[in-house]
Each structure stands twice: as C-alpha cells, then as structure tokens.
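B., you asked whether I could sanity-check this one before it goes into the benchmark set. Here's the sequence:
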Amino acid sequence: MSSVFQNAFYIGNNFNTIMYGVELTVYILTIQAIRRKPRPSATDKVLVIFSTILLLLNTIFVATESVFGEEMWVVNANYPGGSDAYLEDFASVWYQTFGTAASIVLNLFSDALMIYRCYIIWANVRPVLFPIVLYLASFSLGIAQLVASGVPHSNYFAGLAQKLGTAYTSSIISLEIILTALICGRILYVAQRCARGSARALAYTGSAAITIESALPCTLLGIAYLVTFARGDDVSIFFLSIYVMSTCLAPQMIILRVVSGHAWSLDTTDAIMTASS
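And here's what the prediction gave me:
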C-alpha cells in the first residue's frame, strides 16, 4: 500500500470521529423528540430500538478503525517493513473483521429502512419488489465478503476479498441508487401535481425533504466509494469511511423526521393533493 493509502486511512479516521459526533447529536435529538410526546406510540419505541442498534454498530466501526490506526501508526510504529507491512500482516485481525461485520450489518439495516420508506412514499408494494430481491442478493454477497476478508493474512482491498467486495458494493450501491431514484421521482411527481407555494406541500416536497427522505448524500458517497474501490485507487479507504458513516447518519435523519412528524406517511400524497386543491 502506498503513502496515499495511509494518508487516506488517517484522514478517513478523522472524518469518522467528526461524523460520529453529528450522528450522536441527531440520535439525542431523536430521543428528545420522542420523550416530549405525552404518549409515545409503538412505532416510536421501535424506532428508538432501531436507532440504538444503528448507533451501536456505528460505534463498533469507528472504534475498531481507530484502534487499528493506533496499533499501526503508534504502538507498532517500528514494525519491520513499516506501516504497510503491518497492514498487510494484520488487516484480517479479529477486531477488524468485527468492524467490517458491523459495517455490513449497518448497511443492511440502513437499506432495509430505505426499502420500507420507499414503500411508504409510494403507498404501493410493487415498486419495492425488485429492490427486495436485490437486497437479498446483497445480503448473501456481504456474508461471502466478510468470510473472505476474515481469513488469516487476507486483505479487504486485495485478492478474493476485493473481488467479492466489488460485487457486494456494486449490488448494495445499485440498490441505493434505485431506491433514491424511486423516492426522488415520487416526491417530484407529487410536487408537480400539487399547487406551487403550498406550505403543506413544501414541507414534504422541498429540497430538504427530497435530500433526507431519499438519502441522496449517502448514495452519492456510495458511488464515489464504488468507483475508487473497483479501480483499486488508494483513496478508496477514505470514501469507505465516510460512506459507512453516512449509512448510519442518513437513516437517523429520516427517523428524526418521522418522530418529529415531518416525514411522509401512507396518506401524505392524498393529504397534499387535498390541501392543494
């Protein structure tokens, strides 16, 4: 691995801590929004559990990346062959595999929520049938990649693990592109059909609503990671870091909108059309 990879890894770890702070803030805001309700619903309670799981998985990823960075650059600074040799020898250490597993499960949780939100926004199960099939394929590839990268002396960024990683990343990013397109398309369609300038319509069809509901930033970061990873670019580790963090932050932002009463529900389209008529 080149010095570019090492620098990208280091910068990625720094971005992890910054984005983790943002995620923790949004999580706290979510809990506060639910606690302000006189009687939290069953859905609210499920979302608390879901949010907590996301945070725990994200914490595992951030912690394992930080520990590995410390071991490579500080504790074993004089390792024979330098940090590149240490990375080659210990890339599959148990806690790195644990962190990779956490990131894959986090991604699957995030995309499961996206599929559900797509169903809610369309109020129809047919648009999500193909995404569900693609989701199941991504799950299988994710397990295969995890096994390959966890084999002693294997490397997430080389050999079979990289090939499986490219297949897994391609399927999961394709899924996110499809879901983002479906959600954006539906919201824009409703925005075109309703009266312009309606306060109720803008709350659900404005740029902020489209960006958050569709998890657009997460999808764009995923595309950047997929391109660099497939090409074998050393900066792919940086995009991996911020992409994984976004797979926690993006769904948490959606959940915050849901518990605050600003997210789409099954009857939102009819309500907007009625208010705009």
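One thing to flag: The mean pLDDT is 87. Otherwise nothing jumped out at me.
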